[in-house]
Structures are given as C-alpha cells and as structure tokens.
Write a structure and sequence with these properties.
Elements lengths: L3 E6 L2 E6 L10 H15 L6 E6 L10 H7 L7 H20 L4 E5 L2 E3 L1 H8 L2 E5 L3 E3 L10 H7 L5 H10 L3 E2 H7 L4 E3 L4 H13 L3 H15 L3 H16 L2 H11 L9
Parallel strand pairs: 2-3, 3-4, 4-6, 5-7, 6-9
Antiparallel strand pairs: 1-2, 7-8
Helix pairs in contact: 1-3, 4-5, 9-10
C-alpha cells in the first residue's frame, strides 16, 4: 500500500495521504512522496489542478512525533536530523506555491501543526463541517514556528498568535471566516464540492493560470507601484498568447474557445 496515492481524472490530479492509522503524519516517507509527486507534476502539462486529501478519519496530524523522538537518540541529540527535517518540510510547502497548477486542500477531521501548515500552504481549501484546525505544538512544549509562516500569511496576525500560544483549535466555520479555507460543506459533499472546484479551475487556459498564479504570489511581496508595473508586464505577456487571442475571439463570437493547450 502506497503511503501517498495519486489518481488522475481528466486534468485533475488527486493526491491522497494514505497512512490513516497514524492520522496521515508528515513523516520522512510522506514528505519524500509529496515532494516527488510535486516535482513530477511541475513538468506534467496534462494536469491543470491538484487536490490533496487524507485517508481515514483525519486530513493530517502534522509531523511524526515517534520519528522525531527516535532522532533524539543520536549523538547530537537529533539536531542534524531536526534541521534537515524542517528544511525538507519547508521545501515541500514552498513547492506548492511554485507549482504551475492551483492546489486545493480537501480537509476533514483535523489538520494540526504541520497539517494545518499544509492547508495554509495550498492555494485554496475546502473543509467538511466539523473539521478542526490547530497549531497546537505549544501544548507539548514545541512552538509551531514553521507552521506559523504559512498560517500568518492566511489569517490576521492576532488570531494566528492566539492559536499559536494557546493551542486552541479553530472550527471549520471560524477558519472560513478568517480566510484559512474557502468554504465549508457537509461532510457527505466534501469530495464532490472539491472536485467541482478543481474541475472549474482545470477548464481554464492552463498557460494563463500558470502565469497568473506566479504573478499572484510575486506581487504580494511588492509595494503598490512595483506590483502594478510587474503585473502590467505580465498582462502584456499573457495578451500575446495565441490561445488568449482565441479566447477573446470566442467570447466576442459567442462560442467555445478552441485552445491548443
């Protein structure tokens, strides 16, 4: 049984974390599997959207604490392992941002610590009613410093800081209100609703979404004038695409576009 299962339907790739008996932790093996799939998907022009979900009763419970505890038996107390672990995790999380395809988290049960970080790192998220979100490492004496990077870029800082210092969970509805997830749906509809969102995205011109996703994240780091100058150049590049010309013509002629990609 693969620890990460991939299934493709049309232009949507579905990655399912598949270690349900341990609540799908981001173990060494899971991190490697996710990174491998992201590296492959980056070059896969047939895929235009990606969904990440978890098998069993939860989305993801964060890092594998048993692996982390075992690492402390090393001569250096685990320092080298921990530095490597958090570095690999950060690389994987940042890979989501740089993928050409939008990535949607399909979340149920719980998403805690690095699991919550994974949700926050995705471009969009759909949550089932009853899902809980937390960065609760502080409860065991480990402040969720790396998860807070993604979390604090999703929700207001005071709410993020409260979560980090109290270890309290957010309900799905509160997560939606704060902007951590796009929508909350009945648990029975989670897969269907997430698939529908992914298919809408996958139906768009892939080249336009790719250039737009990159520009979206780049401009967020810029000042206002620099952002407008940069995105103006991106719009120029996009306008010169053959398929964009076809899309505009199709709209004016009230027909479906005949895109080449």
């Amino acid at each position: 049984m693969a620890i990460l299962e991939r299934s493709d339907t049309n232009a949507v790739a579905h990655l399912q974390l598949n270690h349900p008996e341990k609540l799908n932790p981001l173990s060494d093996e899971m991190l490697a599997a996710l990174q491998g799939e992201f590296d492959a998907l980056r070059e896969d022009q047939t895929i235009r959207a990606i969904v990440i979900s978890g098998a069993g009763k939860a989305f993801c419970a964060g890092h594998d604490l048993k692996q982390m505890t075992a690492a402390r038996q090393a001569e250096d107390g685990g320092q080298a392992y921990f530095a490597d672990l958090f570095g690999r995790c950060a690389t994987m999380m940042q890979s989501i941002k740089t993928l050409p395809q939008p990535v949607i988290a399909q979340v149920h049960g719980i998403a805690t610590a690095a699991g919550c970080q994974l949700v926050a790192s995705c471009d969009m998220a759909v949550a089932a009613e009853g899902t809980r979100f937390g960065v609760n490492g502080v409860n065991i004496g480990l402040f969720c410093s790396t998860p807070m990077v993604a979390l604090s870029r999703n929700i207001p800082r005071k709410q993020a800081f409260e979560m980090l210092t109290t270890g309290r969970f957010l309900s799905a509805e509160r997560a939606e209100a704060l902007g951590l997830v796009n929508r909350v749906v009945p648990a029975a509809d989670l897969a269907t609703e997430t698939k529908a969102l992914a298919e809408i995205v996958a139906a768009k011109l892939g080249a336009a979404v790719k250039i737009g996703k990159e520009a979206f994240y780049q401009q967020l780091e810029m000042g206002l004038a620099e952002a407008y100058a940069y995105t103006g150049d991106v719009m120029v590049q996009n306008m010169l695409y053959r398929d964009t010309e076809e899309g505009i013509a199709a709209f004016l002629e009230k027909r479906d576009p005949d895109w080449s990609q």
